[in-house]
Amino acid sequence: SHDRKGKVSIVTETNFAEHEVTLTEKSFKPFKEKHPFIMVGVAGALSAMRDFGFQTFDKFWDESYDEIEDPKMRLYKIVEVCKYIGSWTPEQIIDFKRRVKPILEHNYKVVQSNSALKVANRIRTEIAKRVR
Known about the structure:
about 55% helix; globular; two-stranded parallel ribbon; mainly alpha; 2 strands; 5 helices
């Protein structure tokens, strides 16, 4: 039996339903550990991360949850993504781990080249502009 643990990190941020962005050190841990992730946070968090040079995982699963304003619907969509990833065969997992490496390396370099706090503040400011 293949080891299915450790495929993808679930990053749960402090705020989810509120219109206030609180990106913390937790948001950047997967970058430092070279781990793919699903962000359980406010709408627009992934989009803001992409604006600052990070790559996310829309090649591998549906990240449209990031655009859903309604917290219950966003969470429902995130659960669907988790179920999809959980359904992968051992072969799909091996293929994913191989194909995701360049993204993980890229994000690691981005987070190393900026202090995490500086990046977090820039992303927080950007999301605050988008949130009504």
